[in-house]
Amino acid sequence: MTASTATTSVPQHVDVLVVGAGLTGIGLGYHLTTLQPGRSFAIIESRDAIGGTWDLFRYPGIRSDADLYAFGFGFKPWNKDNAIADADEILEYLQETIDENDLGSKIHVGHKVVSADFSTADARWTVTVERTSDGERFEITAGFLSSAAGYYDVDEGYTPHFEGRDDFRGEIVHPQHWPADLDYAGKKVVIIGSGATAVTVVPVMAETAEHVTMLQRSPSYVMPAPRKDPLPILLRKVLPDTAAHKITRSVNINKQTLLYNASRKFPKQMRALVRKVNIKALPEGYDVDTHFNPDYAPWDQRMCVVTDGDMFKSIAAGKASVVTDRIVRFTKTGILLESGDELEADVIVTATGLNMVPFGKIPLHVDGNKVNLPDHVFYKTLMVSDIPNFTFTVGYVNHAWTLKADLVAQWTCRLLAHMDRHGYSTVTPTIDDPTMTRSPYIDMGTGYVNRAMHLFPQQGSKGPWVVAQDYKGDRQLLGKDPIEDSALVFTSATAKTLATAG
């Protein structure tokens, strides 16, 4: 795609400005094109390429951790054999979506949002944008602003302090900043971490490294999953791609829902099941309880997917190993552990997590006053109290991200249509229950979540202010329930008088 980077090609005003040209932004662009065909919009992206996560991360083996029949768009069938797809396959899929729906002219890469201010009097956002190629700044006005920036800090990953880091004579790499020329063939590699990134990198690096050690402070739940899903491959032989995709998507979503609900209702049984699967996949006599039996219940944190059991195979072949211990310090030649052992390393990979940030770190203002996000509350997990004409997308923690992205995009288009029909220029979620209590947006034991929740708006204890992480419920709440809500306050475009839809 030849996305524009020239200032003159970025519109001075649009009806809807979308921030982020990853999977979420491209999906929203599709829905705006099809459901709001007369409305002008632009998608701006701070990086120099589309794709978001799938272009940002370049570590070996990067792939989805959900099957593409659920993780892909609901409107575009995934017709490749790999259900668990590599980043380049996902980028190709996104490019196809852009080309098929003529979205290229709407996407402007290399443009970073510096700040955004909503004027109540003018019923519009003024967004300050910096062109990254030369640092020049200019303004775009928009009637509506939508954040498709996700919640990763694209500038910097998370690395805790390691005593003696500067003493280490080898290379230290964070997966978010993977050097294109890193040579680890025939070398000893230690990967610090036990999450999705670590279990992805281990088997790929083990193919050419002398040995790879995954060093973890505590275990995570790890489950094998087939790269290829036999169901759609069979269905495509007898049905059109669209029908095969629809059936597979429904089956896989229900399967994931069943797994999650069973984990929450029957944690002991699910723990035993995961342990049984791990024992079968690992060498006889392997210490599963030390390395793969967490002290928390299944789905208190996300489960890690091991494609075709590749990490287990690397362990069985002696190419990789897992060490569960705590780090005392880095040394000249490796890492000293609390047990007294020292792991030798030529390369250390700090797969220690990500930094979460709300709305791409964009400072939001209303009538010149900066919004302090933690003072606000999420509305239906797609708007924020007291911030007019603004939606955002953050996916599920227990389902594929795109399931939520599709629902948010469709709801946003329904909202815009509703405002047109009634002549409204602004919509603002307003807390209508002073007795409502508040709690963190996401309640999980995951480190990168807990480190960041103080930066985000909170969730409420009742009504549309609850963050339920419930795809089935959101299909009703966002897909079918009326837009009208006592918590939404609309302003007339003509008289500028408040009107609450009820």
UniProtKB/TrEMBL annotation:
Q: Which GO terms describe its molecular function?
A: flavin adenine dinucleotide binding; N,N-dimethylaniline monooxygenase activity; NADP binding
Keywords, in A-Z order: FAD, Flavoprotein, Monooxygenase, NADP, Oxidoreductase
Names of required cofactors: FAD
List, alphabetically, the Gene3D superfamilies matched. FAD/NAD(P)-binding domain
Listed InterPro entries? FAD-binding_MO, FAD/NAD-bd_sf, Flavin_mOase-like
Q: Is Flavoprotein a UniProt keyword of this protein? A: yes
Would you identify the family this protein belongs to, as annotated?
Belongs to the FAD-binding monooxygenase family.
- The name under which this protein is listed is NAD(P)/FAD-dependent oxidoreductase
